[in-house]
Amino acid sequence: MAFLPLLKKSILILTAGFLVKTALASYRKTQPGLKILNYDAKSIFLGIKDVYLGPRKLKARDLLILAAMAFTILSLYRYDEEISNWFRRRGETALVVLKNFGWYYGSPENHYMINAGFYLYGFFFRNEEVRKAGTLLITSSLAAGLLQTILKIITGRARPLREEGKFSFKPGSRENSYYSFPSGHSILSFTTAYALATQVRQPAL
């Protein structure tokens, strides 16, 4: 759809203009704003650090859960191609709007833009809850994004489009077609869902 790139650029320009206008209107509050930015930057750094040092704090119960998850994933890997084909067939009948939404807004650059927009809204409009949610979103996305990028390069698993089978690996490859594991879209989706869920106060939700 040729209009999608144009629509995407238009939204970016309008969003940037709105944020600049809001920033200028809030200029008189710059000093408190700088303190908040400094505090949030430290929170993001410490949060990412905690993610990577967290495994040191795992207890026996956590290790059992991790082992069970690994066993389940390895067991399902036997049916990887069958599962992939099933979902791809269903994708042919899915609504184009939903497919485009999932693809464009699940991509890293758009995902980070949305997270930044979340944070900036809370920052400029002095909404602490939204700002904290934005901080958590940025932290989880950066931590997960870095990890999945490293794992993609290390594993070098071929994408289905190469049609080389589920055991095709090329560790250290620089070709994007060998970056199928782990799924960046899935990781960013789960981290975003979890980060937002922690901000919901109603247990039923």
TrEMBL record:
Pfam families the UniProt entry points to: PAP2
Taxonomic superkingdom: Bacteria
InterPro entries: PAP2/HPO, PAP2/HPO_sf
Domain Phosphatidic acid phosphatase type 2/haloperoxidase: 135-202
SUPFAM superfamilies associated with the record: Acid phosphatase/Vanadium-dependent haloperoxidase (SSF48317)
Record-given protein name: Phosphatase PAP2 family protein
